[in-house]
Amino acid sequence: MKKILLKYLTKYTTLDPKEQQAILDELQVRSYPKAAVLLRQGDVPDKCYFVLRGCVRQYSVDSMGKETTSRFYTEEQAATVFHSGSSNAASPYSLVCLEDCNLVVGELAAENGMLRKYSQLETLIRKMVEQSMGEAQEEWSSFIASTPEERYKAVLRNRPELIDRVPQHQLASYLGMTPESLSRIKKRVGGAFASPEQQP
Prior knowledge:
Layout: H1 2-12, H2 17-26, E1 28-32, E2 37-39, E3 47-53, E4 56-61, E5 67-73, E6 78-79, E7 94-97, E8 101-107, H3 111-117, H4 121-144, H5 148-158, H6 161-165, H7 168-175, H8 179-189
Helix pairs in contact: 5-8, 7-8
């Protein structure tokens, strides 16, 4: 699985093979079972994650108890809660594994030490953060300008694996609609776009 990380090290750094291997040896790859909670809303994040295998859901619960799914992280995506302010700020989101997952786990407290040891890692991390933030911004821009059906079709074009990998009520929340509306849209779109509905 670390071959995936080697691809990014080769793409974004000029580290030699010995340095690349040293970094890979220091990285922690952990397995988490389905439903494992990586971060609870209100806790201060102390880890960041990179998905090698599996799916991680990001969601929040408001004061009325309404749960809203805001992102799904799948293979080769960084699952990290970003803050514009203090690094000690409480997370507005929870992160939970929707499937059995293999994740690279980064301890935020140890990050500076790694960066001092391997300065080019800063470039790698910046590129990965830029990619993640760019994807999130693009998703949000498309979301607010689209109808519910257009949002569903965008998922089919850009992330079709989500249709079969996540429960329908969570996908509906992510798309800003009710499960009933999503069911109607799936039936209306039909054909090659249709997929069996998953139960919550």
